[in-house]
Sequence to fold (149 residues):
Amino acid sequence: MITLTINGTRHDVSSDPATPLLYVLRDELGLHGAKYGCGFGQCGACTVMVDGRAVYSCVTPVAALPGREIKTVEGLGTIDSPGPMQRAFMDEQAAQCGYCIPGMMMRAQALLEQNPAAGEQDIRDHLQANLCRCGTHMRILAAVQRAAD
Ligand code: FES
Fold:
């Protein structure tokens, strides 16, 4: 049994320690915000935060995570009460298909927690690690700039 702290709540999980966090989130805990894209740490769809830093949950084994603070997109707010990052993405209508958006929000959240004064180039550089196949990059950029204001 491995105990994970996710969005401030402790969860005992029974998965093999080598199981990537993404599978535990989605299959064992019912947290479906983080998405499976490539499974190889290349696309960013699965991005969550661990101790304030953005990580690819598809290549992060749960064995590495006890005692660490995991945050997923569900931890940013709710449908009834979206958090500032979620609100900014909605206000800028940043999503096209929306598949990449949870990962984008988590990487942007990590950036703004590390650097609340992040400027356009900081945001561009930081979001290089996440892909959007719809090509809504400019709206995503605007959303993160709005969240930073
Ligand atoms: Fe994890 Fe693509 S699914 S980086």
